[in-house]
Structures are given as structure tokens and as C-alpha cells.
Amino acid sequence: MRTPSRVIVADNHPLFRAALVGLLTEHCGLEVVAEAADGQEALECCRRFSPDLVLMDVRLPEVDARETTRTIRQEFPRTVVLVLNGYGDPDILADALEAGAAGYILKSASPRQITDAIGKVLEGASPVDQEIATEVLLRLLDKRRQEESTSPLAPNGPERREHAAAAPPAASLTQREEDVLRLLA
User: Fold this and answer.
1) What pLDDT does 126 receive?
2) Where in the chain are all domains bearing CATH 3.40.50.2300?
């Protein structure tokens, strides 16, 4: 029999945190080992319990979720972080992924979607809300177009066509943009 995955739930809203704990306690294969109301407490719980997963609200007091995620990933490379957010903000998604979160799900998701996302992230996948992921992708593409239009090479000149032929589209993306695109795929 497989050992349950150890989970820490970090959310500053006691009612929502309790609901998550209740949901996860009913789920086979998961063991909630601690709860945290802020980023500092989440870090202390990680140091004490070495969890497999931290399910964390993106808006935490004390130490914010971005810094908490970054610290967890540095101190506990095997611990994955799944970020929850009440709003579908692509900037928050990008920040969370940049900090090292393995996935991002909205608080409005159904219990089944939340447990499915947890299962996926524990298996090594990167679940991300599709609408927000699409928005991030569109922003990246728009950013790329803007960068290309301000490039010293003329947009329609022969040098521009030669450059476009020489460098595939992915070559002009930053490493982080490539990571986000991989997560979207």
C-alpha cells in the first residue's frame, strides 16, 4: 500500500482553509499534516513536516506567496507548490510560476477539479487554469510582437526577412516564456 502524500494547506481565510482540509482529508492518498494562516507559518510547517505538497493561497500575509514559494523550492526541492487564487489574474499566474509553483488553480474550481489538480501536480504535471493560461499566452505573443516592431531591423525590410528565416519563433522567447508555453502545452 502506498504512503499518503503529505500536504500543508496555507490560506489566511479560516473557513476556506477548513473546507480545503475537509476535502483533502476525505481524499484517499492525501494526509493533511499542517495548516498555515500566513507565509511565515507555511515555511515553519514545511521545516517541521517536510511535505510532498503545499496547497497555498496566493495572497498570504507576513511573507507573500511568491517569496514563500521561492523559499520552499530552495529549501525543499522535492516539495511541490500548487497555488490557489480567487481571481484569474495572468500576472499572478506568471509570478507564481516564476517563483517555482508547479501549478495554479482558481478557488472557484470544483472540489473534483482541485483534487484532480493535486493528483496531477503530485504526478509531475503542471495544472494551470486554461482561461488564464490562454491569457498569459496571448500576452506573451503580444509582447513578442511589440518587441519585434521596435527592433532595429525594419519590419518589412530584407534584413528582417533574413532574420526571421534564420531564427525560429521559439528562439526569440525568454527561458521563462518557454517554460510557460511548455506548461500550457
Assistant:
1) 76
2) 5-128
Report the distance separating Cα 117 and Cα 152, nearest Å: 44
Question: Distance between CA 70 and CA 150 in Å, rounded?
Answer: 33
Beta strands (DSSP E) in 97-137 are 103-106
CB 121 within 8 A of CB 103: yes
Is residue 37 a contact partner of residue 45, using CB atoms and an 8 Å limit? Answer: no
Provide the pLDDT for residue 21. 95
At 17 the pLDDT is 95
Task: Report the topology of domain 5-128.
Answer: Rossmann fold (3.40.50)
Distance CA 6, CA 29 (A): 9
Partners of 128 in the β-ladder: 104
Q: Which pLDDT tens digit goes with each residue over 71-107? A: 999 999 999 999 998 876 677 777 888 889 988 888 8
Distance CA 74, CA 99 (A): 10
pLDDT of residue 152: 63
